[in-house]
């Protein structure tokens, strides 16, 4: 049976995702949600998908909406998606550091018989974090290491001269909530770890610019009553967007196929 879905956004993640899905027999992209001024413009076309500007315009048979457009788009559309009774799968988990927004979306989903799933994105170890959390208090640390180019256009430029560093520099330490507020374009991994593990205020985060690396590196370390673990992922960035790991795209593909690599928020 073919599932009809919609995708919010038409940037590098969505375009790579559409290429990865190819001629899928069991997934049909019926709608792509973009800003109103983009509809009908050059390049904003994909097969027979209908580009729309709001959730109200989605095809009636759309049962799942995938967010791949960033935190502002998630904040704009999430509540509308779940209020319509459709399931929502998201990657911009940094927006969920806002407790009132997270509660509003999860409550609306519960009232309307919907579901909210946070896709794993660029990070693994979510099952281990969830298991450790169930057993009791745990200490969770996340270190995000990226090439200097990945930090351009972010507040990192106010902390370190990206053009002059010759070795790895840790330019930020704080909580997952702090990083979600200060580095929204780079916060999703930290936020997803916080949701799976010990929470936004308890999850400690370090961000590192390293001119010697070419891939994004994510390190998760946890200690608790069950013991300790360290999980390290080296992920090649998208060629079209060095801030985003290619694994983010394929975590969406995996979710669409088997629904396993995600955190159920509601």
Structure characterization notes:
- The protein is of the alpha/beta class.
- The chain has two domains: 3-122 and 246-259, 3-Layer(aba) Sandwich (Rossmann fold); 126-234, Dihydrodipicolinate Reductase, domain 2 (2-Layer Sandwich).
- The protein has seven helices and 14 strands.
- It has a seven-stranded mixed beta sheet. It has a five-stranded mixed beta sheet with strand order 8-9-7-10-11.
- β12 and β13 (241-245) form a beta hairpin.
- α1 crosses α7.
- The two termini are 25 Å apart.
- Its EC number is 1.4.1.21.
- It comes from Nitratireductor pacificus pht-3B.
- Residues 165-253 form the Aspartate dehydrogenase domain.
- Specifically catalyzes the NAD or NADP-dependent dehydrogenation of L-aspartate to iminoaspartate.
Give the arrangement of secondary structure elements.
Blueprint (H helix, E strand, L loop, with lengths): L2 E6 L3 H10 L5 E7 L16 E3 L11 E4 L3 H13 L3 E4 L8 H13 L4 E4 L6 H10 L2 E9 L22 E7 H7 L5 H9 L7 E6 L6 E9 L2 E9 L1 E2 L2 E5 H13 L3 E3 L2
Parallel strand pairs: 1-2, 1-4, 2-3, 4-5, 5-6, 7-9
Antiparallel strand pairs: 6-14, 7-10, 8-9, 10-11, 12-13
Helix pairs in contact: 1-7, 2-3, 5-6
């Amino acid at each position: 049976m073919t599932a009809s879905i919609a995708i919010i956004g038409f940037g590098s993640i969505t375009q790579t995702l559409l290429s990865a899905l190819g001629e899928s027999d069991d997934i049909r992209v019926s709608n792509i949600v973009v800003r109103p001024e983009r509809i009908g413009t050059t390049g904003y076309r994909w097969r027979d998908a209908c580009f729309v500007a709001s959730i109200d315009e989605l095809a009636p048979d759309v049962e799942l909406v995938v967010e791949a457009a960033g935190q502002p788009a998630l904040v704009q559309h999430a509540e509308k998606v779940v209020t319509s009774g459709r399931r929502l799968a998201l990657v911009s988990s940094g927006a969920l550091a806002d407790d009132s927004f997270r509660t509003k979306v999860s409550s609306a989903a519960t009232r309307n018989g919907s579901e909210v799933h946070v896709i794993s994105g660029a990070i693994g170890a979510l099952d281990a974090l969830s298991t450790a959390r169930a057993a009791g208090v745990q200490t969770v640390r996340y270190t995000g290491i990226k090439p200097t180019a990945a930090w351009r256009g972010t507040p990192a430029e106010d902390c370190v001269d990206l053009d002059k560093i010759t070795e790895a520099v840790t330019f930020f330490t704080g909580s997952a909530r702090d990083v979600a507020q200060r580095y929204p374009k780079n916060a999703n991994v930290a936020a997803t770890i916080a949701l799976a593990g010990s929470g936004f205020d308890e999850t400690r985060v370090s961000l590192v610019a390293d001119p010697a690396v070419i891939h994004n590196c994510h390190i998760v370390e946890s200690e608790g009553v069950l013991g300790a673990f360290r999980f390290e992922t080296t992920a090649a960035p998208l060629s079209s967007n060095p801030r985003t790991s290619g694994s983010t795209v394929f975590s969406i593909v995996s979710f669409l196929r088997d629904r396993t690599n995600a955190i159920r928020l509601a």
